[in-house]
Amino acid sequence: MNSRNLLLTIFACLALSVSAQSEYKSIRTYIKKGGNIATVRQQIQKLEKDEDFKDDPKLYFLAVQSERKANEADNTKLYLNQAYDTVNFFATISGMFKYAAQCDGIEQHRLSNGNYKLKYRSKLHDILKRYYPNLYSAGIFYIKKKDYKNSQQYFQQYLDAAQSPIFAADRLLTTDTKLPRAAFWCMTSAYYQKDYYAALRSGELASRDSANADLYLQYTALSQGALKDTALYISTLRKGMKEIPYDLFFFSTLTDYYNTTHQYDKALQLTDSVQRLNPQQPIFKFAKSVVLYNLKRYDDCITLSREVISADSTNADAYFYAGSCYYNQAAEIDDNVQPNINLKSYNAQKQQVRNLFAQAKPYLERYRRLRPNDQKRWAPLLYRIYLNLNEAAPFAEIEKILNEASDKATKSSK
């Protein structure tokens, strides 16, 4: 570089330094004397968009100090038992960590690109170490309110801080026993926001939270399922069945998956395998009865459904499947019978149909009493049953229900 260019560079740096002193003056004044943090934040945000300042680590270090000053004002109110804004109190802590990450990121970039010495990292560490636990407290504050957006933000900052170069010497990943729980709550928050990729990103650390091992695997499986990662989804459900056998979520969810994807043979293998381990468990019997129903093994389904009802008379679906088996058997015969009243076989078949509908009736009526609002399921079946059994009064009632449902559907579609 010739002397002329060197002078130009020096003058440019001096001009920038003078400009920085001027632009940073109001921020420095606030840090010393306090005042209106909103005005200071506006100034910082303006400079973040300015090409001359947006990559200056000093700007972000001053921003950290500004947020600390605002936090101290709230902390003083807390100490004096005066009213203070909890949301703002936590927001200032979040701001400190946000700006610290930006400050250190710029310095790391400069360090990797040439001859540069870190100026702020140790200072940032000294400021932030006091406030690090408050990020966790903020996350708990919001998770209790089911404000998952904010809880995820604070728990994520807590996790990011532990892994940042600023706290490298503290070895928080091995010394902070709250990290697995923070990761679990971060995962929970992300899951309830349907941010499934973020939920899975917290998984490795969240898996160490032994107190929530069941929920960790549940959120993992459900996130994988939502992302259509079928192989991992099934693998995680099977892992859950193996590691947490007392939690029936994994068995039920995997069985439902096989049923809804019409993989009935796999569903039957699964239900048989768990039933062998605990043959008297009603939920295992019920799950197998559903598979048998889907396989159209109606007699076997009826037998198992009766066993379920005997063990748990409140299981509404067991009544539905038992009644539906009789109903389907009757409907299959009725739909294929040859309409000739002079044939003995016709009369015998029609009698068989009536007998099967009569057997279906008490189960479906019981299901109706247990699930009165599930009209779409029981009304069409009872309609045909009462019609075939010539039961005029209940038939008229069901016909009215179906007509009202049809009228309602027609109006809502207009």
Order of helices and strands: HHHHHHHHHHHHHHHHHHHHH
N/C terminus separation: 78 Å
Radius of gyration: 34 Å
Q: Bin the strand percentage.
A: under 5%
Number of helices: 21
Q: Tell me about the biggest sheet?
A: none
Q: Based on helices, strands and strand pairing, what is the structural class?
A: mainly alpha
Mean pLDDT: 92
Number of strands: 0
- Label the overall shape: elongated
- What percent of residues adopt helix (DSSP H or I)? over 70%
Return residue spans where pLDDT drops below 50 for at least 5 consecutive residues. Answer: 6-15
Can you put this structure into words, describing what you see?
- With 414 residues, the protein is mainly alpha-helical.
- The chain has a domain at 22-130.
- It has 21 helices and no strands.
- It has helices spanning 3-33, 37-48, 57-79, 86-113, 121-128, 132-144, 148-162, 172-175, 179-192, 196-201, 203-206, 213-226, 230-243, 249-260, 264-277, 282-294, 298-311, 316-336, 344-370, 375-388, 392-413.
- It is elongated, with a radius of gyration of 34 Å.
- 33% of the residues are buried.
Supply database-style keywords.
single chain; about 425 residues; mainly alpha; elongated
Q: How do the helices and strands line up, and which of them pair or pack?
A:
Blueprint: H1 3-33, H2 37-48, H3 57-79, H4 86-113, H5 121-128, H6 132-144, H7 148-162, H8 172-175, H9 179-192, H10 196-201, H11 203-206, H12 213-226, H13 230-243, H14 249-260, H15 264-277, H16 282-294, H17 298-311, H18 316-336, H19 344-370, H20 375-388, H21 392-413
Helix pairs in contact: 1-2, 1-3, 2-3, 3-4, 6-7, 6-9, 7-9, 12-13, 13-14, 14-15, 15-16, 16-17, 17-18, 18-19, 19-20, 20-21
